[in-house]
Every structure is written in C-alpha cells, then in structure tokens.
Amino acid sequence: MDITRVILVDDHTLFRKGLAELLEREGAVRVVAMTGNPEEVRDLLREHESDLLMLDLNMPGTDGISLMQQLKGEGVRLPILILTVSEAQEDLARALRSGANGYLLKSMEPDEVLDAILRAVKGETVVAPALTAKLVNLLEQKDNSASSLLDTLTHREREILTHLAKGESNKAIARQLDISYDTVKLHVRHILAKLNLSSRVEAAVFAVEHKLAGMDASRSK
Known about the structure:
2 domains; alpha/beta; elongated
C-alpha cells in the first residue's frame, strides 16, 4: 500500500501532535514532519520528501493562505490543504481562489480528514462537509458574476468571443465577420477589459466554460 507523506504546520502543539497520531493509525498516511513555525516550512519541504502540505489558517506572523500563495509563487507544486476552525464563507472563498486543494475544519472526524488527504493527493478539491452549503453558494455567486460580466458585452463582442473560443486568429475573425483586423483587435481589447481577463487564451477558456464555444455567432446576443 502506498503511504501518503504529509507535512503538517499548526501552531498548537497538542492539536498538531494529536492529529498526526490519529492520521497515522490507519497506516495510509505518515506525517514526515511537523512544525508550529511557518518560517520553517521551506526547510521542511527541502529536507523531506512529501506528497501533501497541511497549513493552519491562522498562525503567528502570517496566515496559511498567504503562506500558500508565497510557496506556489516559489514553485511548490504539492497539494496544499488549509486546516482551520473558521467556517466563514470569506475564508473558504479566499482559500479556494488562491489555489488551495482543500479547506478542512478542525472539528472534522479523523477519518474524514484522512479521506480528504487521500482524495486531495489524487487531484480532487476537498471541502469540509459542514461547508457544502457555503461552497454551493460560492459557485452560484461565481455563475451570477459571470452572467453579469457577459451582459456587459455588446452583440459584436459576444460574436467575437464565440470565435475566440474556437481558437480563431484576429485575421480569421476579421474575414468571417467582414470587418477590419484593427477593429477585431479593438473589440478583443474591450472584451478582455470587461471580463477582467488578461489574454485571449483566458477569454477563450471563459467562453468555453460558459457554453459560448458552440453558439452560433449569428444568434448570440
């Protein structure tokens, strides 16, 4: 049986040690290193082969989400789970938007935490069961936000967005819509600004995610 190697970072000594002991009982997880000092995390990552990093949300001098952002910016590719007592939707949203692979509560049962770790290592995003309703709410807010952004586009901009989703170049779009290349460039610039995106690739992904890729451009509104 493969053993998942975990680095645990939490500033509460008793909780840290107790969780490590509980996780290792089943034999599927081994806590290869743990610390209560966020400043030691980078050293632990260099010194120990690991499959997953668990970070407490609130720690002295920093917070788990900020530390996670720094580590990801430095090239750390391990799955990272945020572990916390906070059930605030704002914290959940910030963690997931910052790239966390999961958001777990310290009130969860040990077997739930163990299951979440094993799923996260397989590439799943895991959230504490008690936060399911808040996660659904966040997803609904995202959909509503996307719809609102799409509503800011003109008919022509939506036409061009459908073509971007098909991977077409500005020249190809210009030919199909019988407008100038410069006009297409201007529309693309406006689309990116209105959708808060930074590249035509992001615009294409956005369009695919929101079911515009297969839309007949002549019928887009």
